[in-house]
UniProtKB/TrEMBL annotation:
Name of the protein: NXNL1 protein
GO cellular component terms, semicolon-separated: mitochondrion
GO biological process: photoreceptor cell maintenance
Domain of life: Eukaryota
Domain Thioredoxin positions: 1-143
Alphabetized Gene3D superfamilies for the sequence: Glutaredoxin
PROSITE patterns (UniProt xref): THIOREDOXIN_2
InterPro entries linked to this entry: RdCVF, Thioredoxin-like_fold, Thioredoxin-like_sf, Thioredoxin_domain
């Protein structure tokens, strides 16, 4: 999948504005993952309705508060925003692991033509080798939520990781200090429920 972005720069959505511009960095970020290309705009009314759903969808599959291990999923935002400021403002409300093309990169138009994107929002789902799984998954995401990722994973024939990559530990330090306590509390309350159910059955 990195071949799609050969010679291009992708920007990581965080305050440092890190850029993934070497083939090695791009390869590490995109290898063996389902790629979502999100064509959208912060100003478009339909996008404003859909973007929070996509944000929740992505977080539930990649944030370790919800999952033990981040899913093999990467998202690149392909902006139709009118200005760089509007693009930045929109991205500030989205997950830090999202990637995007620089605002002035004309490759955005090439991607629109290649994947026949006419209207936004549009989410093109690609296998790691660049083959299209879904031309526009907006309705599928609305209807099924994170459950549709399993279908894409099977279609992409991903090799399941039995170990955690270094990137899975990104931003661990910036997590809330109460995060382990919340996890423990959730675990304890779940165990208590199971004990109560066991007593009722006895």
């Amino acid at each position: 999948m990195a071949s799609l972005f050969t010679g291009k720069v992708l920007v990581v959505n965080n305050s440092a504005r890190d850029e993934l511009d070497t083939e090695r960095e791009l390869g590490r970020s995109l290898e063996n993952k389902v790629l979502l290309l999100y064509f959208g705009s912060g100003e478009c009314p339909r996008c404003r309705e859909f973007s929070p759903l996509l944000r929740d969808f992505f977080v539930r599959l990649t944030d370790e508060f919800y999952v033990e291990r981040a899913s093999q999923l990467v998202l690149v935002y392909v902006s139709r925003d009118e200005t760089e400021e509007k693009q930045s403002k929109f991205l500030k409300t989205m997950p830090k692991r999202w990637l995007s093309l620089p605002f002035k990169d004309e490759f955005k138009r090439e991607l629109e033509l290649r994947f026949a994107v006419a209207d936004v929002p549009a989410v093109v789902v690609l296998k790691p080798n660049g083959e299209v799984i879904a031309g526009n998954a907006v309705e599928e995401i609305r209807r099924m939520g994170p459950a549709c990722f399993r279908n894409w994973q099977e279609a992409a024939e991903l090799v399941d990781r039995n170990f955690r990559l270094a990137e899975d530990f990104d931003e661990v330090a910036s997590r809330s200090i109460t995060d382990p306590i919340r996890r423990l509390k959730y675990k304890l309350s779940k165990e208590e429920e199971e004990e109560e159910e066991g007593e009722e059955l006895a």
